[in-house]
# Entry
Amino acid sequence: MDLRRKTCLTVVAVLALSLPIWARTDSAQLVVDHPVTIGAQQLKPGTYNLKANDAENQISIVRADDGKTIASIPCEWVQLAQKPRQTEVLFNADRVVEIDFAGQTKGVAFR
# Structure
């Protein structure tokens, strides 16, 4: 193999390995005073941080008081018609159905 081909393969390998570094994590804070459900996970009253990684189809639920991850919930990324000015957690009764992130044209939805 000539030097040019080895250099090209090395660059491609480095770029492929660095893809997770480029992934962005979006987050939202959720404060609830009564039990709510996200996916199949029921949350007790409290404060939670919801973290969604661009590269994955799941959201992590982290307790704000101790930083412990209590669940990873499957989600799907959805395209929004416009960018919301602030992060919004959308409910249907006591169930979280969607999270729209501030300044992003995408959000996450739960089945």
In short: The longest strand covers residues 25-32. Residues 24-109 form one domain. The chain has two helices and ten strands. Residues 23 and 99 are 18 Å apart (CA to CA).
